[in-house]
Amino acid sequence: MTPRVAVLVPVHEQAAFLPRALESLLAQEETAWEAVVVDDGSREPVTVPADPRLRLVRTEDNRGLGAALNRALDETTAPVVAYLPADDVWFPDHLATALDRLADPAVVLVRAELAEPAGTPYAQLVQVVYRRTGDRWTERAELETDDLDRLMWARVGARGTATGTGRVTCAWTQHPGQRSRAIRESFDGGPNVFRTRYRVAGPLRFASTDGSDLDEEARYARFRSRTYEAGPDGLSVLVVGELAFNPERVLALAERGHRLTGLWTADGLGDATVGPLPFGSVPDVDRDSWRDGVRALAPDVVWAQLNWRAVPFAHAVRTAFPDLPFVWHFKEAPQRSVVRGEWPLLADLVCGADAVLLATEEERDWFALALSGRVDPARLGVLDGDLPKRDWLDAPPSPKLSDADGQPHAAVVGRPSGLDLDWVLALAQRGVHTHLYGQVRAPGPKGSWTGWLEEALARAPGFVHVHPAVGPEDWVRELSRHDAGWLHRFDSANGGDLRRATWDDLNSPARLPVCLAAGLPLLQQANPGSRVSVERVLREDGTGLFYRSADDVAAVLHEEVATRAGHAAALAARDRHTFDAHADRLVDLFRSIAR
């Protein structure tokens, strides 16, 4: 029987689901099909039932969804193409119903209904059946995204009529191992979750329907083109955990002749950078045999970091190799470790490491109180572990928007923490522009803007502006157009007692050095009588614009537009807020504990 439909079945680490999917294929009312299961680098065995219409092909390493589906297209010839991912299910009439719609020669693509909606603007693989057109799937080297319209559907649909069947003939299975969840920020996904799950070896071109596009190939080209030579007395440094927002900072050590090797947590967040690092020059220890790898490497020092997600893995490495010199470098947030039940692990790291670096003086003092009697405060140092590389400062600034319109403009880089509809409208009424950069649909506070942004745009046209995320290569060029940057807006109630301190009180926001790089002073709500780390730093540097009300914000911004005093202070301070400025001090610490 000549097959009418080519069925493409991609699978990666989902062998447990596959029998259910293939059973639903074998139960189809339409029997004239050929099927290819593409095992895209699974590390678990994948098998298929014996049926002459069904074949299994394998790739040694994961090459990505696009490459797997193109391989399946090449392995089949039927004039109609359908998709059955290993974790999804067809109902018996799925193919027959789709073929009925495709009997109309004007129809090129058919979309079935799902048993439960996917909640995405694009059709899922399991829904779509179309005429073979010769179009190819976009592959990893060009783009990885959850948006299947961008990867294929838009090209096929442009060749004729796309229509729905109006019938529920398939089910899309929602579970933690879905590819889309590794991509989308609303499920705690992102480029580094994706990188870890699929073991991506090089830089990514990446896009999520929850956020903005990212091109690591372009971003890190300047670093990938460099060669770093180990010096005769260079240290071997094992970097453990994750590197958060500014991973290229570690190259400041490679520039100084030290050899870096990475060992990364598999339980990170989407924006918490893990390896293989997209800028190269830092080889990885194999995470599947990391104990053997660390033993063979025998590093001079372990430099473990950075945020609460890295605590369990850093603790595991410390436990496995108690005799290796160990620096625990922690940024945020001890409160999250308490909530997650990991405070005992964090406490062990702080008390047991040969040296400890914390993000701020206030965080250092908080730990000294919290671990009183267990830790010597003299062993607790201060260095923000997520400072950017100085290279990004070497870019020309842009003209100020306020020089053209006479109105103040303030930028929000990342989530608009503490800003809401009433606040943004109050600023607009006072002639203050709010520029929002890189908003993503994510859980909790990160996504709070979704509840008010549309109304703010409608009620304050011309004063609320939305921009894509701005990467470090564009910090100076893009952000320098503004007059100030927003830090987190919050009320501190610690009254000077760090026992009452919150995460906001102790933290040094990642957006602080970003705005300083562009010469922007920072808008920070004043909290008189409380100990607030970032407020202290801004006052010491002269880079703060302090306020308590919307009237205060308008006043300090208009003064800044008139004098540019904050701008001058930011330019004077910005080098101190780069990692390069502290790299020699860090190396001295490493040498002091190396054995």
Automatic annotation (TrEMBL):
InterPro entries found in the cross-reference section: Glyco_trans_2-like, Glycosyltransf_2, Nucleotide-diphossugar_trans
Positions of the Glycosyltransferase 2-like domain: 7-124
Keywords associated with the record: Transferase
The keyword Transferase appears for this protein: yes
Annotated signal sequence range: none
Pfam families assigned to the protein according to its UniProt record, in alphabetical order: Glycos_transf_2
Gene Ontology molecular function, alphabetical: transferase activity
CDD domains reported for this sequence: Glyco_tranf_GTA_type (cd00761)
Keyword Transferase listed: yes
Name of the featured protein: Glycosyl transferase family 2
Species whose genome carries this gene: Geodermatophilus obscurus
Source organism phylogeny: Bacteria, Bacillati, Actinomycetota, Actinomycetes, Geodermatophilales
